[in-house]
Amino acid sequence: MIADLSKAIILYLAPLLALTSFLLNLFVFLAPTVLFNDSVSLASVTPALLDLATNASVKAHGEIDGPSLYVGLLGSCARKTNKEVLFCTTPSFAAVYNTSVLPTSIPNFLTAPVSATPVFAILALLLFAVFLPLFTLSALREKLPGKMNALFSRPMLGSFVAWAGVLSWLILAAVYLVMRMWLGRSVEDINAQIVNLGKGAPQLHAEISNGFTMIWVAQAFAAVPVVCSLMKLHMSNAPVGKV
């Protein structure tokens, strides 16, 4: 039973998790300027209330009209009121966040990362795009015709697949950890400034958004096929009789 479960994970679950991880990473990379303009972002500034009891700005549960700003790796989407259509900046590696919709009383703490950050992210995505089909075919090589089976049984190809997966995973983890620290500090500074303004503060609240949750889920999913590829590489290179 354990052997069948192990086989099912390697043949079916791991490739499915790899595909899901790739799609999640791609969605977050393109959001909000290309996809999911107001539903997926790395950080956002939205209308909110100032809770005088706790002396902090909190996200509003009701409808409060005001400016909104959603930011990602490639740019931002913004609007001055809830009724307006979102205006998104042109997607670019040298992203610029359109903070002009925010009140002048809030300093421009929210700045885009250096252009190298999205470049590393797209490099990691390309590596994972190579890893995904090669890993899937390698996992299913027993079901492939003779020549294809022999090709995907080569240790050199297994080594390439494993390296592509590991490098992709590490680069994406590094990119989004840096972005989390970068935007996390900006969010704290914005909320602190709003609180310091007191009763006259704009009804806004900055927060880290759901894009990071999607990334952590994607990384957890990607770890399964990456570990499987490393185990296959280890098994293929192990001396006969040893594991």
Automatic annotation (TrEMBL):
Transmembrane segment boundaries: 9-31, 119-140, 160-179, 214-233
Record's keyword terms, sorted: Membrane, Transmembrane, Transmembrane helix
Protein name: Uncharacterized protein
Organism field: Exidia glandulosa HHB12029
